[in-house]
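User
Please review the sequence:
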Amino acid sequence: MDDDSLVRTLETDWAQFRSWPLGEVRSGGSLHAAWNYSVKTFAKLRQRLNALPEDVACVAVSGSLARMEAHDLSDLDLIVVIDDRQQTVNDDCSAAAHANVWDLIDGAVESDEDQLPFLRPKPGGIFSCCASWKNMTDVRRRGVVDEDLTVFGHRMQLLIDAQPLAGFACFAQLQDDLLAWYSEDKATAVFEEGTPLHWLRHDVLRYWYSLCSRSSWLYPQEDARFMEVNLKLRSTRRLLISAFLSAIRRQQQNESGRSCSGKQLLASLRETPLERACFNLSVADQAELETTYETIYEFIARSIPASLQLPREMLEALAKLRSLLPVHETRWQRLCHRPHEESPCACMEGTVTPSVEEDRRQSGFWLRENTGQCDFGDFQRQRILVAYSVTRT
């Protein structure tokens, strides 16, 4: 396969070029309709961006459109990436490039059907300025806890929640460079812990906990906005993080030895978060996840309550989603990804000792105190208890 064919193949792997992937389980539902709407919106946007401004390497989209969940009230979260690897692009040129991309998006249309009802981003957020390729891959920024939040946010979004609109080959190279930037092999080799992508997992968890903290304090006087942010945190954001962590574990499980190229993880980035999340689930759990997620999606898209009270069925759906989309890795999950160890599934009749129960109680207490997200169902809790007992006896 020549390079041009390879690029075309990589382009059409993205969800924006594919039909509804979840079969007949949820065919005809609101998520299916959102997928079809997203495909059409992507096509219109690609037509507008057939020629990129100078200094722009690629343009990506994040948010509901990247997840193929867009509807007519969705925002357009664009990430304009400046190619400043070999030359300096000053702030004025970067701002001009960002404005030029939006001018192309807002360009003249031939009919009402071609209208794209998107507002430009407000100043101050990560979508209001260009992303710097050089800054995102600067080795001097590795391990810097107080790194500039805009650079950190761009890096996270481009890996976890993005599809390219223009500059597909550059976008693929950028994601490859970001994974290489995250690859750490010194501590991995010395302490024999995981694979070189362990640092990426830590940064994704840092991003998640930052979102959890921030959402608790946003809009203290605006109940409707508060509910919207926190419902999305517990649904779409949880899906993003859990699915990406699952993709990292899939990569680690299939890599041989200590070499971790990240190629499988790169391939999984062409899946939507819902596709990633369903990868290791049973057919029954897939159906339950899709049904539960669609219930919450419809509730958020339809109306956000202005009061600080949710219907009981919505609280139950959010609790179910937490059990289906774990974020904090449990001992059970670690055992499931160590094929050389005894499988916990073969030991479901093991005895849970008092010391194991104490471990579970303390671990659950830590999770509740530090994340507020600990809500395991009885069956999952029993599996975790048995997994502990297997390793301690």
Observations:
- The chain is about 55% helix and 5% strand.
